[in-house]
Amino acid sequence: METKEQTILSIDLGGTKIxxxxxxxxxxxxxxxxxxxxxxxxxxxxxxxxxxxxxYQESIGFIGNPIGIGIGVVGRVDRExxxxxxxxxxxxxxxxxxxxxxxxxxxxxxxxxxxxxxTLAEITLGNGNLTKNSVYLNIGTGIAACVVVENQIIxxxxxxxxxxxxxxxxxxxxxxxxxxxxxCVEVLxxxxxxxxxAMAVMKDYPESIVKKPVEINTRISGETxxxxxxxxxxxxxAVVGEALVGVANLIMNLVRVSDPEVVVxxxxxxQDGWFLKQLTPYLNEKTxxxxxxxxxxxxxxxxxxxxxxxxxLAFNQLKSGKVQMR
Length: 326
Fold this sequence. Notes:
By secondary structure, the chain is an alpha/beta fold. The chain is 34% helix and 21% strand. The strands form three sheets. The chain has a five-stranded mixed β-sheet with strand order 3-2-1-4-7, with helices on both faces. Strands 10-9-8-11-12 form a five-stranded mixed β-sheet, sandwiched between helices. It has a two-stranded antiparallel ribbon with strand order 5-6. Strand 5 (76-78) and strand 6 form a beta hairpin. It is globular and about 60 Å long.
């Protein structure tokens, strides 16, 4: 009988979706399925993860031989103790997610922050492996990053490193961030931030081709704003221009702080390359003179980079013989 290759059941929990995939040691996604998520609380999120895993086993099954489960979640994570600390400070219900999953599914489980997992994939399989010192910057619904120094991802004393969405990039901005400060990059340049800024200034641009979404809970997409920008639309020029300046300042600040040799951009807002092309003129050459490999897009697919990172997390931990303490 042919021996099946070892795989990891990888789970990427996002604000709107859960992606589950079976991934082998080469980072190949053998199968995957998407489910709606619920991050209104950690309790609800855990219930959704369990339900999705059960459905995946019943509806998709296993192609290889799963030897572990890797999970990337939004928010702060104590990886060593398998503890998901919080989604954000206002919604905190610490849960020992590793124990919850292992008790039910009888496989070793490993968890980390979602951007940590994406960075693992980037430095293993993507453009981040060009050097031991890099920054992976994810611009999606929100904005976060991981700084990599000598192949080590910086997590911080409270597992809160990389929350650079709350770096102020416009000292004169009156746009208030949920963190309490004004002019943070996330409220100006994330997918949600772009939508909110367009909605906020729409009344000032009655001739704009950018209109309020008809359907409830639908956002004005980055793609819509970028297309309008190319057509010279004044609203799009204002909103996207503000975002470009903000992200450029963010990147240059990160470069000054961490001295990376490459800055890799990922996430839905930047995935098609349009944003980076427009961003480049705003990047100061003197500031970036030591960034050997420049500011580049990830070579990995946006929708699967998370589950690939989750598999690397689990394979690495299993190889090291370490289990997360419970």
